[in-house]
Amino acid sequence: MPKISRRAARRSGQEERLQRVSSASSPATQRSGSPQEIEQEERLQRVSTLSSSGSPQEFFQSLIRPLDLQEFFQRFWERQPLVLHRSDAALAGYYGSLFPLSGLRRLCARGLQYGTDINTCRCVRGQKRLLNRAGAVDFCLLERDFLEKKATIQFHQPQRFQDELWRIQERLECFFGCLVGSNVYITPAGAQGLPPHYDDVEVLILQLEGQKHWRLYEPTVPLAREYSLEPEGRIGAPTHDFILQAGDLLYFPRGTIHQADTPAGAGHSTHLTLSTYQNMSWGDLLLDLMPGCVFDRMKTDCELRTGLPRGLLTTPSISPAVSHQLSVFLRRLADVVDQQGQSLRSSSMRRDFISHRLPPFLQDPQLLQPVGGAPALQDTVSLRFKDHLLLTVEPSPDHTDEATELLVYVLHSLRNRRDTHMMMGASDEDEDDEESQVGGLRFPLSHLEALQQLLVSDRVPVEDLQLQQEDKLNLLLALWSEGLLRVTGALENHH
């Protein structure tokens, strides 16, 4: 691909709204060497942090540098777009390595399918025109459509095939505590793949190759909960109008209307879209928590167990008297939660995340095996893969006379499938068998304190576990066999 000179960003009349952050280095007085040497050192450090196995927070901080986390979440997150323009050859090289166009032929040889793995499309007169062929993707035909039909190639969930994207998204899922999906868009010069639209996810754009011209518009539905197209005549003038170069980053909140095209004569553009926070609002949490909250309260509130008025289910609308009674119950529930510390139990959000997220970034499956010998009472132990582990208290699924018995579940994602991550086309058989695929263990409620102790501590002597002596080894052996426990010798000087 020929070298492309940097073009000045085009801006609308509302240019002052475009938030730009320079990638200036620290003052030279703080470090030795010339300003150029210091700048180069910091650039290399930034790329090293991105490509290293640091903490999830360190990774995200390196992704948005020079902005810090506090400023990002206070000024931009769910509020307004952020554009980071960078003139950083090392960072651009790293971005370009994530999904180069030159590697597409090799991926097509793995039996990719149109519709499932790849879409080809083009924006024509404000409408999306799908250009998919039938069946398996043939690279030569894909390349022909790209060059002759000006088709944009949309690659679904490339983390299934690219190890570094697996690592990036696994770190981001640990950081955000929710699912992170991705698509790669490869668009030829002078073409546009999608019409103006908005999404139901928070979006991070990494420009991998070439350049892309972006236009952003005021949301018609702030923090939208669904995807929607928006006609040009309705969205008005763009609030932001700019070009991303390789190594640049763009963030915008869900609901932000946007469209992007590759400038004519600029060569192709490749960008990575990272998306997160789908169905992760306070409203979604209430939908998840309220059934369990009401169920628990019915055990002690006799009024909630009284019968409904006769004929209520057959009346065309809810009467004012019924609405008033419901509001009384809701206020009472709110008081219980606020004043008495009602224990709230998630019914599906937490399980959905842990069962569908990426597994830990481990290229050697042997690293998931138990570490050290089987635990003994004189040992010291620690939990492994804490970022991929979830403690939850839920009713027993067993149909017994004690149907409301609560159990502690230790759920984990160690053996989740990378190859199906975020793929909505899972077979019905996979969906029906989803419950059995969730990795985890269950214990009596009496084990909760000991499990919490292990979760918050770096290392715990077995004798200090808050659990009956006869139960300690049973708990630890189950965790160790699952690959969740590391066993070491006794702590020195421990009494």
From TrEMBL:
Every JmjC domain range: 157-289
Keyword Transcription applies: yes
GO CC annotations, alphabetized: nucleolus
GO molecular function, one term: iron ion binding
Biased composition (Polar residues): 20-37
Cofactor: Fe(2+)
UniProtKB keywords: Dioxygenase, Iron, Metal-binding, Nucleus, Oxidoreductase, Phosphoprotein, Ribosome biogenesis, Transcription, Transcription regulation
Principal subcellular localisation of the protein: nucleus
Record has ATP-binding as a keyword: no
Name of the protein in question: Bifunctional lysine-specific demethylase and histidyl-hydroxylase
Family listed: Belongs to the ROX family. MINA53 subfamily.
EC numbers: 1.14.11.-
Function (record text): Oxygenase that can act as both a histone lysine demethylase and a ribosomal histidine hydroxylase. Is involved in the demethylation of trimethylated 'Lys-9' on histone H3 (H3K9me3), leading to an increase in ribosomal RNA expression. Also catalyzes the hydroxylation of 60S ribosomal protein L27a on 'His-39'. May play an important role in cell growth and survival. May be involved in ribosome biogenesis, most likely during the assembly process of pre-ribosomal particles.
Bias-annotated ranges (Basic residues): 1-10
Co-factor binding comment: Binds 1 Fe(2+) ion per subunit.
Catalytic activity: L-histidyl-[protein] + 2-oxoglutarate + O2 = (3S)-3-hydroxy-L-histidyl-[protein] + succinate + CO2; L-histidyl-[ribosomal protein uL15] + 2-oxoglutarate + O2 = (3S)-3-hydroxy-L-histidyl-[ribosomal protein uL15] + succinate + CO2
One GO term of the biological process aspect: ribosome biogenesis
Region of interest: Disordered: 1-42
Pfam family, any one: JmjC_2
Subcellular location: Nucleus, Nucleolus
Top class in the EC scheme: oxidoreductase
